[in-house]
Amino acid sequence: MIFRQLAQSVLAGVMGLTLASSALAAGSTVTIGYETDIEPSKIAQAEGLYEKASGWKINWRKFNSGADVVAAMASGDVQVGFVGSTPLAAGITRGLPLETFFVAAEIGSAEALVVRDGSHIGTPQDLIGKKVAVPFVSTAHYSLLAALKHWHIPADRVTILNLAPPEIAAAWQRGDIDAAYVWEPALGKVAKTGKVLISSADVRQWGSPTFLAWVARKDFSQAHPDFLVTFARVTGAVNAQYRKDGATWTASSPQVAAIARISGSEPADVPPLLHGTTYPLLGEQAAPSLLGGGTAAALASMSQFLKEQKRLDDVLPDYRPTVTASFVQRAIGQ
What we know:
It is found in: Periplasm. The protein has helices at about 5-25, 40-45, 50-55, 65-75, 85-95, 140-150, 165-175, 185-190, 200-205, 220-225, 225-245, 255-265, 270-275, 295-310, 325-330; strands spanning about 30-35, 55-60, 80-85, 100-105, 110-115, 130-135, 160, 180-185, 195-200, 210-215.
């Protein structure tokens, strides 16, 4: 087993609290949707830690974008999903029965706007008239639009193309686009023949943060709260391992190999992208800045922005019912 000691360390922190529920869960199955973003929970996914701690069988389904995850959750095909804040905001505003129960990451350099070598884009103003690809209704799309607004560039002055990450990599290779705002593994592919103009860390500093979250259908969370409590414990444990030791991880570290395997990235691309993003710990999740209020406020702000961009017809009066700290509070024994 890859990095057996880490896996045993994570499980040791959660197994004592989940043995009873694991026995009851024998034979239970859940389908979880995920994207290829670089972040620590990929370690738990790669090593089967969620299954070992919960006793559930998990069917993992990979999606190219958060919008696809949200659509699958809307249909009921997926019960738990890993999504970005923009497709999440759009989905819950449209009435989908989803709730955020764990903030996986506050996005930094893991998403970036890359401009092609030879495209003659040296400054933001040079984007005018150029072709920029991005997956629509994604965190990258939100960040691109927020950046254009920050630079006082009308969005209609740029040709913005709606392409999924694999399509972006292919279009880049063909020379069809001048720039792309995307995440791994497409980010690493386009960056080989381009340069990063800005990342979502910059956009965050400009007042338009984005995040990645674990969400569940409300019917599933009501029926199976113990699974989400265990899921939160495991995710919090791998985030804590990264907070403790991540600065020493290199392209040859087994943890990096696990993340690269699930995300489809090159191991060398993983450490710098991890370093550019914040992964909240279990004990931080219920804080006022996150599930205790900040996450709902961020979803409200993002939805209002999407409405201004004519991506949404309206916004909800209150986003707090779409966020819950109950599972992380149970996970830490509160």
